[in-house]
Input
Amino acid sequence: MISIDLGSNTLRIVEFDCRTKKRVKEFEKVVRTAHNLHKTGFICESSIQRILEALKEADKLFDFKSHQHIFAVTTEAMRRASNALAIKTLIKEKFDIDFEIISGMQEARLTLLGIEHGLKEAQINLQNYILMDLGGASTEISFVSPSEVLSQSFSFGIVSVAQTYETLENIQNSMDEVLKPFYEYLLKSDITVCEYPHFVATAGTPTSVAAFLEGIDYKSYSYEKINGKRLDIDDFTNSLNALLKLDPEEQEFWVGTNRSDLVCAGILIVKSIMQILDIKECIVIDNGLREGLAISKCNKMPIK
Output
């Protein structure tokens, strides 16, 4: 079966073997769905064209029409966009793929399924941990324990923050404003942060930093080499400083085309969240929403 996640920054697709619970092949392309969404309220024509071109490219790899089971979801950018229905209709006409716009809570639950699978693959057994999925226009944070999972979706992400504040200096100076909803959530909740000693991070920023520190360039990226890597705050700081010293071509080599500004913005967000939580180390897991969706469908679980 095929699982598709059209995120606010990246289109991620995986062919998943339900019997072995393994990836067969995968595809990823930066499409910047949320480009200028914070200003206009709709997904712009250039983003729509990037999405269509990426799906066309992916179709050559997967041959969508040859697959009976294709499940596709989309997230915060499409939740906000006034033209979301028109885009869904256009994709359906061109590729016969039905995208479901899922809620932030659905996104958090499915991402957790993917993370649990990734932790198992990496042979990491955690009891109480905090999970952060830093997306393009939203960030989902879950407090996970054997007895319950407390999840919340926040309307900040690497694309929206990078485009709203424009420079890294502005982003750094505005971090209290950016993370105010998260501060308020912690203050109003009954969560005792110290009861969750582990921090798991997924999405493009932590995986890019982990790969960069391992000397793995963007085109050579392999999730198997990244799952389970541990990073501390200094690793994020050192990666940011190193990336900023590179010229644009070198940045593209390491973190991909049109991604360096977003990765740098993401590093500032990750560091700030770790500081708020007084967390010194994070475990990086590549698995996320698309893997969780695949596992959910393989297990015939409804998306609740």
Remarks:
- Residues 2-102 form a domain with the Nucleotidyltransferase; domain 5 fold (CATH 3.30.420.40).
- The first strand starts at residue 2 and ends at 6.
- The chain has a mean pLDDT of 93.
